[in-house]
Records
---
Amino acid sequence: MLPFSNPQLKADAAVSSTSSFDKPKSRLLQWPRAKLHGGISRPFELLINILGILVALGIVVYICILLRFSGRPLKEAEGVGNYLVELSRLGPTVYPLMFAFILGKAIKSYARWRMQRGERIGLLDLLYGSTTATGTVSTIFELQTIGLVAIGLVLIWSLSPLGGQAILRVLLLKNDIHTSSKMVQYVDSNSSFPTDFMLGDYAGANVPVTSLFSASLASVNSNQNSSMDQWGNIKIPILELLPGYSGTEGRDWIAINDRNTTPEYSSLTGIPVGAIPRNQNSTFTMETSYLHFDCHTLRSYNMSAQGPLNTTNNMNSKAFRWGQMASADGSNEVRKRCTDPTFRPQSLQYLGWDGQDYDMTYANCTVTTSHVEVKAECIGWSCSATHMRPSATSPGLRSNLTLLDLCNATLNGLGYFLEPLKLLADSGGRSGSPSLIQGFLVDPVQTFNITAVRTNPPVYTIGKVRFATRFAQLLNTYWLSMIATGALQADHASEYRLLYASALETNVTSDAAVMTIHYNKAWMGVLILSTFVVLLVSIAGLVTDLVIWVPRLMMNVSTLTRGNSNFGLPAGGGALADEERSRLLKGVRVRFGVVSGLDDEYLLIGDCIEEGGRVSGAHKGNAYL
């Protein structure tokens, strides 16, 4: 078709063309006949549309999963969590490609449908030029057209990069603090006296006890001020020595490190607590107890001048000797104490030889049981007691009854308790030699330093409060070593079995930093909008393809050959799709040039003159119509 505007020139050119030129020969002699079919007869097109819808639905599933699992730990999401992470990683690359494929195809289908129904060239050119994001912008500038359709196309295409960024940025993985609770066991320090140590021959039952006790004494240098013992058990401070303590009737929690001072602990060993979460922060409270000493007498003592002491229960069931502990209470006193909550507490005496150059040290102490509530905090397995107060949860707890008072047995609790301890209180048979207990009482750090303990000052010089504290620490340590032999080294076992002690339970509340699924609300809005548009466009493309029956137009050179007399092609072929026409015409050489031989030279597209066509090359600087 020649681009003439004058009808007369058009007629003259037609006559001149038919008279002066032979019609060029074409390699294609006859177009094949083809029927027009609706979209239902084009299964490949339908399959492509359905795949586009499925891909869009995959993004919808991603959005739904993200909304459903928001606020839940990533581990709980199992395989879904991996799906979210992988799609978030690949989304910025895959989403724009998917968007461009679906939208570009839908625009082509819509343009084809509009052409089937009849449409203005301006809109068709805009649609066919807007099958890509950059093509849309360049087409608008080239056509110099601004309208609702053009603006709409720009806005829709802008959702492609925004959707890709939304997939990348919508998923937020944060370390949230998740709180959980569970019941755990801990050793009851107020347990009954172990029956194995009531026997006349307790065989080797005291061997591990002595080992644990000795290990505790040896670790004082490194663990004296630590909130845990060397095995990770929680040490209990002495409530009575804390600033702010106002007596057993007080109900306020007392902060243990409120004044940045290191507390005195009731024992060198701590209370074993089982199943504390290793990688979480935990808090809990527990009821526990310890022996508390009030030493009203601490002085030098000359046995030769003052005579023997009046004792009924002592370590060796013999005369009270130096380096020993004993009680003057008999069975009658114990019975009264077991039945009368107001009866005086147990008294415990200490006698120690301070060396060749000194007299003995004598002490007389009142022993009570302190029942306390303790708040503890743990960072993993690193725990410490943070607050304490007198216990009031069990009205039956009495301070005048101690582990030394066996109300339901033979009443000789002190004798049973001191018997295994005698080896540690013994000097080894050498007169004037200090025992481990004497060494600890004077200087806990130098307990095993043989040279140092031989030059220690007399025990009575350390003062009543310090003596009472260390004396109680020794017995509390030995008691825990006796009743919790296995638990002390159990590394927070989930359950304590085969113990001499009974076990109590407490509720542990744990806070853990857990990787949790969240989403960014702003980017979620962008992703929902973009995905909605993609899904809508996919469905619209499918519906449009179903109602189109005209052949596909590729809007390329093969399209220009339709009905163009400047190509030496046979008539017909209009029912063929452009891709089929392109395959049939792939050998035809065309040029955008000049049709020579007419009165005027016209620039147009046609087959090349050197191959039997009629279009020759144009020359720079020449004027053409």
Note: The chain has three domains: 1-33+576-625, 35-173+516-550, 189-501.
---
Amino acid sequence: GKLDRGTSSSSNADDDVFHPLGSNRETIIARFISCGFSMSNLDAASLRKAVAKVACTRRLSAKEPFDEHAALALNLDCYAVACAFGGSNNDGDVRCLLPWLDQSLNNSSSTIKIATIADSSQDKLVGDLYGRIYTHLYNKYPAIRKMVKSALKADLMADTTNDSSAIQNRFRARGGEFWIAIDMESSEVVGCIGVRQRKTKECEDQDDKGGPSSPFSVVEYEVQRLAVDDKHRGKGIGKRLLYAVYEYSLRQGILEKKKKKKGVSVKLLAVTPEALVNANNLYNAFGFIKEESFEGGLTMNVYCKTTMI
């Protein structure tokens, strides 16, 4: 709506466009995705960071500090700026509009591409990657060797008699998808990740004040087979692979919401050995919460990230 002296007048515009985006990052991302944007073309920053960077870029500075600076900084920290772009935007234009970005918004300078797995030749490359990256842990953790061998004989097993990807077919049959990270210069698969749907259940959210309950659906997905080549660690590949899974789960949740015409909670789960320090750190940095740990030949940590749509 249009603001006038502290009051708001109604607008005939689409509610999906002219509407408060949300009070947290996950809600804002979900709204952008529901409008057709990709997570690779989204960015958000605190308003203080955005203003400070713009002021620095434009060489704007106060002649002397004053008390209002502190008050302004605290106030700006209560807000954020979120931007979404189409995939065809020029990187220079994006950086001009968003000077606070530390790197290219769409990673156009990177030689690593994230894509769904395409054929049986890539199945073999995934098997080779997954079979070698954990070998240094086999002696200390025999259970990891067993887990890898089991994966290679099950959902990561290649089928050379067919041109299509057997890995993709298996994950899609379970309501999921499988992605790979490809080095475009060498055509080498340097990372992979999969997701499958676990279950959908119906719940009711009881009003704290005793009002009527609100029905909603909980859609659970599980991250599987996350792996990044040791030679390519530290390039943000694992984070980009997780973004692919997160965006996929949100899109499925949005479809569920449109179909059932009620709220949907997307619950993304991940189970990883505590011995895989980098994987645990990645889940924590991505906003997953560790729910529990259990013993299965070695200590396994269960992480969860929930987004209400």
Note: The chain has nine helices and eleven strands.
---
Amino acid sequence: SAASASLLFLQWQNAHLNTELRSSQQALAQARADLQVQVMRCQEAERKQLLLMERAEHLELDLSFRAAMGGTPNAGAMLGFTASPGFASHNHTACTAPPGMPAFGSGTLPPELGHSPCGGAAGFGAGRLTM
């Protein structure tokens, strides 16, 4: 009788340990799935950051080019920009941006680009061409 009681106890303990093992395996599988989701989100965020940084750099270079072209007569007209009358009295040719674009030389980026990781929206302007 003692042997059968010992056997029943071992069977109960085995079943209990198997249940704990399955529970731990499920928790581990869930943790791995959560980690994979986080890794994918991180990779996507890094990709988006690189794309936005490239776009911001391109916009800053474009703004610098257009600002440099502002000193050339009629250069802005060739690019589709108009002279700002407020600057005419100062012997400047300032360009106003087409609708939906930031003002040239403002150092600001469109709202969808947010802030640059280089110290603010004007972070890429350090190498701006001036005339």
Note: The two ends are 102 Å apart (CA to CA).
---
Amino acid sequence: MVAENIVTFNLEGSLWFAFKVFTIDNRASLKSLSQRTSASSITKCLKSLNAFLKSGLEFNISSSLPGVLPVPVLALTRTPLLVESISGTTLDWTSVKFSLATLTKAFEIFGFNPTSSTRENLDPKLNRVSLFFNSSRLLKSFHDSGSQIKLYNELNKRDPSATVSTFEAFKGVPETSESHVDDLIVSMKTTDFEDQITPYLHRITNKTNVLFVNAPLGSLDSSIKRIWRADSGSVPNIFQAVTTYGLINSTNFDVKYTLPGKMFISAFPSSEKLKNFVRKQELYYPGDILVPSLIKDLIDIPLINAQYCPFKDLFKLQVERLVVDACLNPLGQLLSFDVQALRDTTALNKVIETIIDEAVIAIKASPWFKAVVNSDKTAISVIDRQRLFAIVKQSAKQYGYGSSDMLPDFATNYIVRNSKSRHHAAPVNNLLRNLLISKRRSQQEQNEIPIVK
């Protein structure tokens, strides 16, 4: 006879450890469903049980292959007890004997409170989730709005009511003894990450997890080198994400969820060489690194619809977004509403094709492209011109010209700069960049002209 149930424990307030419990006749086993905590934390808990519980069963702990994501597995057997840790060291323990019936109670006694779900891990009521503002003006506006964020899910027509969350908010990290930043999500539209991260550097260590959301292609590499150039040993665990759903920010920190999509999350090499990083992912993904609870918690939230993926998948999305932005943003700004009338003309299609041609040359100069293609030859399809042209046209039809999720002019500047490194001029993108600079300068001068009555 086989019995099965789920037991989930919250260890030390923020670490999660989930077991699936099987009972087969007189034998029992517990298998980890998720890697939400380290083997050392599990070992610490089991040592407490070792000193406390007494019953009729012994158990064994093992992990996956060395160098691969540890998956602790507990099997309750009558064999001698051996513990294989993350490092592969084998330890002999005295016999640990306990019954499944007392397992949950034992964790309660030792201060590890059972819970039935991890979907609300990011709820500010359950954990210390704070918002950091680098602008005093924005912080004041947030406090004036009740320190609340309202999310309107416009995809749910039956229930248009808002989900309201209240957060602590600060300008910089509060100076308290417990203000180490465990997890940091950077979601600002910027390429100047040095200014955004510097205020928190004294609270960030190599154990901190930092997730950059929608960072433009190539923007993180140089920023990370500049920020941690003096102390490479303190570089945190870095991840990046690309989102594909539609969000509209309105007044008073109200957010409208308008288009379905996903969040794609990948690890980013903090200090490892690109070639080695991509190669290791090709061989061991998803066991190439230990995925932190921050990422797992995001994956567990249905509305975010997040997926952990290898970098080559995320790189493909970044390339597509760069090319779409390089085509739609400058044309939308320069041609204004006339671009809609020209949408299907041969002349405009020719301009788009040329922008894409120059973008492909620039992308080929990227060290990421070289590392990804060297590891997986099929990744060359990411720069297929016909595929990219179809994506641009579909995006223009769906969103219109001039609507961009990226920073103004970033894509155009990226293409000009990287093409130059390969001794190519990128004349069309260079022309568009100069026209955008001239237009912006002209608008600025008009705004400075005094009004004479």
Note: The longest strand covers residues 2-11.
